[in-house]
């Protein structure tokens, strides 16, 4: 079984500052890793994913994440945030099945960007 | 760009009533998921379909919830009777290969 822990429930940050949203996972099998963003009363949008290969993954809207297998972490970073980045961010894992496995989500991190 | 469609977007009902949600996945996506997201939490899987067959419904409260995908395309999730604790966002997702799931806009259910 897998589990995901997002270490910060809320992250306030000023506009144009860098930000890191932390995610640790636990699994007895190899996993795929994802970050999703959710705006109020909307569905989830994929920011980026790690399936294999390079441990540094670049996504949309200037976000990137680094997979660290030894620390079982997949932290999300952005060098300079905008007001429009204010949203809820979810880290998720799934096991490596060809058919597509269910996603196990963390509790979410609310990113609040202030002017 | 193809999207997952869900309806209704919002539903308000009284407890003990029946409610139903509809999802139309992206064309060609064989796998369909229903997730429930309680306010302030991450989504949790309720049921997973592969074509018309249920792959995982271990977290579906089967005494009141049912889900079907009769022709392996669109899907309906039903709650009967609704309880106060069912108030949540119900999200539908689909995928074809690999593990990138595409999510619909969700149905926000409020049970009074």
Question: What are the main properties of this structure?
Answer:
heterodimer; A: about 120 residues; mainly beta; Immunoglobulin-like; 6-stranded mixed sheet; 4-stranded antiparallel sheet; 12 strands; about 0% helix; B: about 110 residues
- Tally of extended strands of chain A? 12
Mean pLDDT of chain B, to the nearest integer, reads 93
Strand % of chain B is: over 45%
What is the H/E string of chain A?
EEEEEEEEEEEE
Mean pLDDT over the full residue set of chain A? 92
Coarse structural class of chain A: mainly beta
Q: What coarse outline of chain B follows from CA principal-axis ratios? A: globular
So, CATH architecture of chain B? Sandwich
Helical amount of chain B: under 10%
Strand percent estimate of chain A? over 45%
Largest sheet geometry of chain A: 6 strands, mixed
**Low-confidence spans of chain A: pLDDT under 50, at least 5 residues?**
none
CATH topology of chain A: Immunoglobulin-like
Structural class given helices, strands, pairing of chain B?
Answer: mainly beta
Q: Cα distance, first to last residue of chain B? A: 37 Å
Radius of gyration of chain A: 14 Å
Protein topology:
The complex is a heterodimer of chains A (about 120) and B (about 110).
Chain A: E1 3-6, E2 10-14, E3 19-21, E4 23-26, E5 31-38, E6 44-50, E7 56-58, E8 64-68, E9 73-78, E10 87-95, E11 104-105, E12 109-114
Parallel strand pairs in A: 2-12
Antiparallel strand pairs in A: 1-4, 3-9, 5-6, 5-10, 7-8, 8-9, 10-11, 10-12
Chain B: E1 5-7, E2 10-13, E3 19-24, E4 31-37, E5 44-50, E6 53-56, E7 65-68, E8 75-79, E9 88-95, E10 102-103, E11 107-111
Parallel strand pairs in B: 2-11
Antiparallel strand pairs in B: 1-3, 3-8, 4-5, 4-9, 5-6, 7-8, 9-10, 9-11
């Amino acid at each position: 079984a897998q589990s995901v822990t997002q270490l910060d429930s809320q992250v306030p940050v000023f506009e144009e500052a860098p930000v890191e949203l932390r995610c640790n996972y636990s699994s007895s099998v190899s996993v795929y890793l994802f970050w999703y963003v959710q705006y109020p009363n909307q569905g989830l949008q994929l920011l980026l994913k790690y399936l294999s290969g390079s441990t540094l993954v670049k996504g949309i809207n200037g976000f990137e994440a680094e997979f660290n297998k030894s620390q079982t972490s997949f932290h999300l970073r952005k060098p300079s945030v905008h007001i429009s980045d204010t949203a809820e961010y979810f880290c998720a894992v799934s096991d490596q099945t060809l058919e597509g496995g269910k996603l196990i989500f963390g509790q979410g991190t609310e990113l609040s960007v202030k002017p | 760009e193809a999207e997952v469609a869900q309806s209704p977007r919002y539903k308000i009902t009284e407890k003990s009533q029946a409610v139903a949600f509809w999802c139309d996945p992206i064309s060609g996506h064989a796998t369909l998921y229903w997730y429930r997201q309680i306010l302030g939490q991450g989504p949790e899987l309720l049921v997973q379909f592969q074509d018309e067959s249920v792959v995982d419904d271990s977290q579906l409260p089967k005494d009141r919830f049912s889900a079907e995908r009769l022709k392996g395309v669109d899907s309906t999730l039903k709650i009967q009777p609704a309880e106060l604790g069912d108030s949540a966002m119900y999200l539908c997702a689909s995928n074809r290969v690999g593990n990138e799931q595409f999510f619909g806009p969700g149905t926000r259910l409020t049970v009074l």
